TrEMBL record:
Superkingdom of origin organism: Eukaryota
InterPro entries noted in UniProt: Cell_wall_mannoprotein_1
Pfam families: HsbA (PF12296)
Protein name as it appears in the record: Hydrophobic surface binding protein
UniProt source species: Mycena sanguinolenta
Keyword entries, A-Z: Signal
Entry's Gene Ontology cellular component terms: extracellular region
Source taxonomy: Eukaryota, Fungi, Dikarya, Basidiomycota, Agaricomycotina
Signal sequence, renumbered to the chain: 1-19
UniProt keyword annotation of Phosphoprotein present: no
């Protein structure tokens, strides 16, 4: 309940920030989501490539997270610029989001699985750990904001579903962040 209240509060803030300088279209948001989807795939591949991909592969992970964050942020600003969505458009976008969120979740699960592979764990190298941690937290924020923006733009009958997606993916980020924090850090 506390969670819902907090999310609702942030939705109000986001709703209050809807000021459309240039009106965007639903098609633009869908194109953004296609881009997000490609980028999630690239991140997931980079994660699954460990540990064989070595140091270069490990260093690519925060970079891929940042690229994904950038595509999510683009989706967020285009959605804000599109304004309030009608039932049909909101349903279309929500359906597309329901396809990509499980892929983000799968990438997080793969990262959690890497965290439990403690032998020669490159994610334990201090520098990589710091940049993965920071990129992961930014990505959590970008993902949260993207889904919260959709919840705020959608008609009220779709709000609860969007918020539940937001809470679930937020929880998945928290689990991965917690799993990474358990890898011993090496210099
Ligand atoms: C997708 O992302 C890439 C890289 O950020 C960008 O160059 C491209 O314009 C984007 N495509 C769309 C359809 O927004
Ligand atoms: C997410 O990022 C935005 C913009 O950088 C920032 O204003 C906001 O406080 C961040 N939210 C959280 C929960 O970190
Ligand atoms: C994720 O962790 C943050 C920081 O501890 C917390 O504020 C938030 O409520 C957590 N999210 C969920 C869904 O548990």
């Amino acid at each position: 309940m506390v969670q819902f209240t907090r999310s609702f509060f942030s939705l109000c803030l986001i709703a209050a920030s809807f000021a459309a300088p240039a009106k965007r279209t639903v098609a633009q948001v869908e194109a953004d989501i296609a881009n997000i989807s490609n980028q999630v795939g690239a991140l997931d591949n980079a994660i699954k490539g460990l540990p064989d991909s070595g140091l270069v592969g490990a260093l690519a992970i925060p970079t891929e997270m940042e690229l994904l964050g950038t595509s999510l942020n683009t989706g967020t600003s285009d959605m804000k610029a599109t304004g309030l969505l009608d039932e049909t458009d909101a349903t279309t976008i929500l359906s597309a989001v329901k396809v990509i969120v499980p892929i983000i979740n799968a990438a997080l699960q793969h990262l959690t699985a890497q965290a439990s592979n403690l032998v020669n764990n490159l994610l334990g190298l201090a520098e990589i750990r710091a940049s993965v941690d920071s990129a992961l937290q930014k990505l959590q924020n970008s993902t949260d904001t993207f889904v919260a923006t959709l919840a705020a733009a959608a008609p009220v009958d779709l709000t609860a579903e969007a918020i539940s997606i937001q809470i679930a993916i937020d929880a998945a980020f928290n689990e991965t962040i917690a799993a990474l924090s358990e890898i011993p850090v090496r210099l």
